[in-house]
Amino acid sequence: MPTKTVVENDVEIIMPKLYKVLLLNDDYTTFDFVIEILKTVYHKNEEEAINITLQVDRDGSAVVGVYPFEIAQIKIEKTHTLAQNAGFPLRATMEEV
Known about the structure:
Blueprint: E1 2-8, E2 11-16, E3 18-24, H1 31-40, H2 46-59, E4 61-68, H3 69-86, E5 91-96
Antiparallel strand pairs: 1-2, 3-4, 3-5
Helix pairs in contact: 1-2
């Protein structure tokens, strides 16, 4: 899945494709839960987590990070598992950058 090649000191480095992880709005997941997910899974500080949560609520979705495919996939799975265990329908998706 490489997207671009960088030559550095005569060494060819293949950079992986990157993916945006987005949180999607729903009418049931609480702000507090979304903020906690953003802090624990995506390592956002309190202010970033609040701003992203407000953007999800206002716009219907928000980018929470950009990662290589496997990391994005793991973060999405963790989000879904935590949400399901807490009884919330919170969903996350990814899109190629």
